[in-house]
Every structure is written in structure tokens, then in C-alpha cells.
What we know:
- The structure holds three protein chains of three kinds.
- Chain A is an all-alpha fold.
- Chain A is 76% helix and 0% strand.
- Chain A has a domain at 51-195: MetI-like (MetI-like fold).
- Chain A has helices at 3-22, 27-33, 47-76, 85-95, 100-111, 115-139, 143-151, 156-189, 199-207, 211-235.
- Chain B folds into two domains: 2-246, 3-Layer(aba) Sandwich (Rossmann fold), CATH 3.40.50.300; 249-305, CBS domain Like.
- Chain B has a six-stranded mixed sheet, sandwiched between helices. Chain B has a four-stranded antiparallel sheet with strand order 2-1-4-5, with helices on one face. A three-stranded mixed sheet of chain B has the order 11-12-13.
- In chain B, helix 5 (107-120) crosses helix 6 (138-150).
- Chain C has a three-stranded antiparallel sheet.
- Chain C has helices at 8-22, 41-44, 47-62, 70-98, 112-132, 136-155, 163-170, 172-206, 208-223, 226-243, 246-249, 257-281, 285-293, 298-332, 340-350, 353-381; strands at 26-29, 37-39, 107-110.
- The longest helix of chain C has 35 residues, at 172-206.
- Chain C has 16 helices and three strands.
- Chain C is mainly alpha-helical.
- The two termini of chain C are 46 Å apart.
- Chains in contact: A-C, B-C.
- Chains A and C meet through helix 4, helix 5, helix 8, helix 9 and helix 10 of A and helix 5, helix 9, helix 10, helix 14 and helix 15 of C.
- Chain B: Residues 2-236 form the ABC transporter domain.
- Chain B: This is Osmoprotectant transport system ATP-binding protein.
- Chain B: Keywords: ATP-binding, Nucleotide-binding, Transport.
Amino acid sequence: MTLRALRPVLLMAALLAGLLVLLPRSALLFHALFPSLDRPLYTRASFLDLTLAHIRLVLGATGAAALVGVSAGIFVTREAGRRLLPLLSATAAIGQTFPPVAVLALTVPVLGYGSGATLVALFVYALLPIIANTVTGLEGVERSTLEAADGMGFTPLRRLLQIELPLAAPVILAGIRTSAIINVGTATVGSTVGALSLGSPIIEGLSGSNTAYVVQGAILVATLALLIDRLFALGSDGTPA
Amino acid sequence: MITLAGVSKLYGGRRVVDRLDLALTDGSFNVIVGPSGCGKSTTLRMMNALIPADEGRITVNGRDVRDGDPAILRRGIGYVIQAGGLFPHWSVFDNIATVPRLLGWPKARVAERVAALLAMVGLQADGLARRRPSELSGGQQQRVGVARALAADPPILLMDEPFGALDPVTRHGLQDELKAIHKATGKTIVLVTHDIEEALKLGERIIMLEEGRIAQDGTPAAIVHRPANARVRDFIGGEEAILKLLAGATVAQVMRPVASEAAGASIAPGATLSAALAHMVASGHRTLDVSEADGRRIGRIGFEDLDPGRPA
Amino acid sequence: MLRVRNWVLPVLTGIAMLAVWSLGFLSHAPNRIVPGQPLPLWAVASPAQAVALAILAVGLLATAFLQSGRKTGLVTGSALFATLLLILAAAATGSVALANPDVPAARTSLGPAFWLILAALALAFVDLAQQAGLSTRARLLLAVVVFAPVVGMAMLGWFDALSLAREYRARSDVFAAALQRHVFLVAATALIAASLGVPLGIWATRHPRFRARLFAVLNIVQTVPSIALFGLMIGPLSSLAEAFPWLRTLGIAGIGTAPALIALVCYALLPLVRNTVTGLDAVPAATIDAALGSGMRPGQILLQVSLPLAFPVILAGLRVVIIQTIGLAVVAALIGAGGFGAFVFQGLGQNALDLVLLGVIPTILLALACDTAFSVLAANGEPQR
């Protein structure tokens, strides 16, 4: 991997690190920008803790969804699970019309407030693009390629691991990327159901008319989202999704 | 009349068309032939100003193609490309009506003209006019492409590899029809192809291009009998090219008056000369009677008459 | 010997039965604040309803052994439909029975078992439609048949004793305004984004450098979380409104419609521009060549050939935009743009989960309705064969 390819990632990582170091020391700047506010710097939790909590939510939910979603996608494209393929594809397609924030709001009645409900909501919503893309990717492998593999004596498992998954990988990865980016956003809204995340200063700022809090949270979460997106771009061909 | 005077086209400093001079007479059937990359397509597309020439001057009926509105120029020149280039979202009718509508013809006249053209290219069958191009066979699509080019009755028809995407049987059929259409309408046709067989069969005049320059310019017989250089001879396929030439002419074109005594074997006047040659080899006769289907002898043809370079 | 021919429906039935066994079907609370007491289905349903549901459940389990086919599909569909009607009826009569005029603050909500049965039924219907290979039109008809009795029962006031309906009745005016507001946000966004995005897309296909820059910017916008973008609009817009007070008369302020619309349009641009570019790029070069050769002018080619050919792809982009905007408009309520999101966040703030549902359910239905409408449009756009 060349340094040139790494540059956007390093840039965003440096930006995020810089913000995390400088923001807690920028009380004077925000006093100047928002003279009408008494306390223009969010101090209820450290920005570093908020960022780490946000990353934990996104990473945990997306990772689990990738594991379950890719497995489900593999299962329904095998002989044993093929009966479920139309149902799962249709459900994934219909489910993606549900707004992510609706899924978030729906988990509260079942699981109550807090990070747990947010984590489950992120996981459930992240499943949909991952399943959809896994199925698309695996079904998109040329018939002739599979027949050639069978003809050369590949076992089904070997065929899956060495032929199908590598060929489907770009599409599957694109699905995981979509999920991760949606999750960064939904985790932010998760603060409205009591999750600790970079959404906390934003939500508190919005409800308390403290624009400075909003700006601080928004800048950090936007940088984090771009960093995660650039990381995924490394894994694909480098172009934006 | 189409003239090119010192016409060049440069791509990245390379001359793909190199100071070309050419004068194509009205009503002639001209074929520009050559290997891929010889500049034949570029030359054709400069004639209707789809590509601007970098040097030299091109005139169509005395007018420089750079003068005036290129859209107006193109509406007066028929243009046919490989696979027809039909508009996939329009019906066959709408496709053929393209240029008449651009010219603002009244509805009734457009409908009348489309019907006449469908009949001319053999697509008068019921309901065909309302179909989309994707519902037609490759041959049918190409017929529609030719009909669309002829719609406004332009005096000139430019054709860029029109039969390139078709299977051999369909291609030969359409070549015959194009020859008939040329005979019936007297259009000036310029056809570009890489297929020497097609060139020898269709062209009255063949312009062979090589690296943007004319390697040879003449009748099919002249090209086959007197190739200008070794590369031309290789391209046309050496001495076997004569067989392609024989395939493009008929017995009726070269037969002599009836002789008193019968030759012993006979052939139809519509047969190709290659068929006559085959018949001579198979039957062991150097002379054949030319007979109508009812057995009436109308002429004879000898081995020495087979050379179509000789006038009938 | 009996052979299992179809295991999907029995599994779904099993899940629903498990939910009924272990979770509350309704939940009853003395007031809006305290959490409710879960009530199982058999405690809520009338004996007749319970017996009928039990018979249906056994019947649905038995479909495992049926040969799939048109007749089986019809029978299964009818059984599913009857189950739907019965659980709705059980929820309705159960909530009426629980209502006590002496305790007006008491609340009866739908419990997790109800929602899980509903989800299982939805999956079963989708599976049925997929297995039968129904056309778009037939699916639409099926959806109408399934939804009609629900709407009918609601209009007849069957569910009036449920807390969801009471939340609605307490706010029916506000609800109508929220619906109007939500639809306005979506429609305005789609309209503005289309009138900007399609020309930008056309421009981008002709200017590769502009195209690269445009996509770089739009991709960044799409990556930034919505709430952050909404938040970042507040600062500049409110200082703008402070500097030029006349802007306020136009509704431009830090919070409210203006920043919401601007952010929503920014999000909507990427799918529209991307699909316009993809659609125009997919027009075969030979088709353009033929159009030029026929003597069409560039404007004529764009309007008569390129755009009509790209239209299905642009329409698909508009579909993405509308579905996406319906969801993002919920979040926009956080900066005071109104719409159904106002119910959602108000409900989350007050721990009034039925109020949350009052915002979430219509949002989902709106998204599903728009998605269906686009499916029908796309199906009709296919050339007839």
C-alpha cells in the first residue's frame, strides 16, 4: 500500500486527533464566537470518551452485523437455504425503506433507554445492506466460473472461500461500508434515547439552545464519519462509494 | 458530388488521414476499404462534419461542409452505422420518421413516406412499424437503419460498416438488396468496410486506404488484376481474390451470343461466375450453354470469358 | 409417510407462538408514566378468539406437509388473513374490556407479542407473494386487501381504547399538520434537488474535471451524519439572519425549515446527480452518433434521445431520494422543522412510547407507500412486450 493511498486516512486521523487535543482547550475561542453563552464549551463528558463510546457503538454493531449478515447471505445462497432467498431479499429491500431513526425509536419500547437499545438498533439496521450486498455479490459470480471450479474438483467449501467470496468481496465490503456510515449517523441520534455518543453535545445543545455544543459535536462526528469512510476506501478501489 | 482536397485529420500528432484527395461522382457506389485504423471511418465521418477536418477542404455539391449549420447539412445526407444505431425508446415508425420530422414535414406526408420506405426495405408486415428496435432481429434493425437514412430522400448515403454485426446469410441478403436500392434510386453511396469481399461485391469504385493514404483507387477488377503493391495484394487475399470477384458478377453480364452447336452442359443466366467456374470444373467442360429455366438457350460462356474485367 | 415440504411458514408460526407464550400481548398501566403490566394473549382474548387462533396456528403448522401450489397458496393466504383479523380483534376487544371510566388516566398499549405476531405475519405474506411470483400489480392488490380491514377497523373506532389511538385523538389536529409538514419537506426537497441535480448531472457528463470535484464534495456531504449537518447549518444561518433581519421574514433562521431544507437538499443531490450521470453515460455512443448523423442539434439530442433513455435511472435516483428524505426529515425535527419527528422525539423525551409510535408508524407507512408507488411507476415504464 502506497503512502499516497494512505494520505486521506492519515489526514482525517490527524484532524480528529488534533480536534480531540485542541477542543478541550478552546474555551476562549468559543467564548469569543458565542459571547452570549455562559458556558460555551461542553464539559459534561470528555470529547475523547464520547468519541471512544461512539466508535464502540459503531464498531460493535457493524462488526456483529457483518458477521451475521454475511453468514446469512452465504446460507441463503447455498442449496440448504435457497428456499429462504426470496424472503430474505424481499425483507432486506423492504427493510431498507424503513428510516434508521425509526428502527432506533422502535427498540426503546422493547429494550428501554440507553446504549444497549442503540447498539441493537444499529445492529438490526446494519444487517439489511450487508445481507442485500452479500446476496448480490455471491449471486453475481459468473455461472461459468463456478462450473469451472466444480469441474476442477473444488469442494463446496473451497469454492466458497477461494472463488465466490473473493469475487464477491468488493460488493460485500460496499454493503458493510454503507452500514458503517449509516451507523455513525444513527449512533449520533442514539443520544436521544440515552446512549452516550458524540450526539450527546449536539442533542444537549439543541435542547438548551447552546449552538456551541452543537458545533463541537457536529465537527467531531463529521470528522469521525469521514475517517471511517476513508478507511473503507482503502479496502476498496479507493473511490468513494 | 463529394470532393476532398488535401484533407487531413490528426490525433495526438499522428496523421490518421493524410492529405487525402478524392472526387466522388453523383450516383456512384463507392467503397472505402482497409484494415482497422487506416482512417476509413474518420474519412467518412468528415464528409458529414461529424469530425472536423484539420487540414484541407471537403465539399458536398459544391458547398464546404464547414460553412453553415452542420445539422442542416446532415439532414440532407443519409447516415447508416453498424447495428443501425436505432433509438431504442422509439418505435420503428418514429425512428424512420426522424429526419422528416426534423425537417418539419406535415404528418400525412411523414406517414406516407414511412410506409413507402418500409415497403422498400421489405418490412411492410403488419404491426412492425409500432415495434421497438429491441423486438427486431439484427437484419430487421439494419433495414430500419437504411430506411431511416433514406427517409428524407437525400441524394447521398454514407454507410459505416453497415452489415458488420450480421450473420453471413443475412449480410449477403442485405448486400443484394442494397445493390438493388442503389440501382433503383441512383443515390451516391459511400460505404466503409474492412471486408474486402463486401467491397468487391458492392463497389463500382473501390478506394483502398492504408495509414490514412490511398493505396489504390479503381474498379474491383483493376484492384484484383493489378494490385498496386504487395500489401494491397495481401489484403485482398492474393490470387484467390479473383474468386471473390467472380462471386460478385453474373453469367448474364459476360455471356456471348448463342453458338450453333450445344456445349453439353448448361447454366442459368442469373448464376454467379464463381458458380459457372465450379460447374466447369465439375462437368469437365470449358464452355457452358446459358439456358433459361424452360431450357431455351440464350447464350454461351467459355472459360476465357470468366474474367469480369472484360466488358460484356 | 408425511414429508416436510415447506418449513418457512411453520417456523414463523412457531416464533409467533413462542412470543405469545413468553411475552405480553397487551400492556396495562394505571397512568402514562409508570411502566405497564404485561397481559398474555389468552388473558385478553375472548374464548372464541383464543380457540380460533389456536386452530389457525395448528393449521399453519400443518402447511409444512402441503404440496406447494396455487390452491395451497390461496388456503395459506386466507389463514394468514384470518389470523391478522383475529389478533386485531383480540387487541380491540381486550383493550375495551380493560378500559375503566373511573380511571381515565389508565393506558392500554400493544405489547411485544402483538408486534412480533404482526412482524411474523408480514414476513409470511411477503414469502407467500415471493413464492407465488406475483406481479407488481398483484402485490399491490394483496397489500390493499391486507391493509383495508386494518384501516376500516380503525375508522370504526375499534382501537379507540388503545393508548396509541388516544395519543392520536389528543393530537389529531397536530397530526394532520405534522403529516402535511412531513410531506411538504419531502416534496420540496425532491423538487429542489431534482431541479438542481439533473442539470448538475448533465453538466458533469460534459466536464470530467467538474464531475470529479462535484462527486468528491457530494460524497463528503453524504458521509457526514444528518444531525451534524443540521447542526452545522444553525451557526451560519442564524448569524446571517442576525446580520440581515429581513431574511427572517422569508423564514430563514438558525433553526426551522430553512436549515432543514438546505441540509435535506444537500443529501438528496448525490443520488440524483449520480443516477443522472450513470443514466446519461449508459446511452450508447452509437445512438448519439446516429442522432448527430441524422442532423439533430445538441439540445434536441439531449431532450429527445439522451434524457428519455436515462429517465428510468434518474427515476430510480428520485426513489432513493424520497425514501431517504422521509427518514432524514424525522431527524430534522430536532432543529424544529416539525413533521412526524416531532412526535418521535417528544415521545422519547416524555417516555411516552405510544407517542413515539404515532410518529414512527406513519413515517414507515409513508416510506412504504412511496416505494410501492415507484415500483408501479417503474413497472409501467417497462416497454410492453
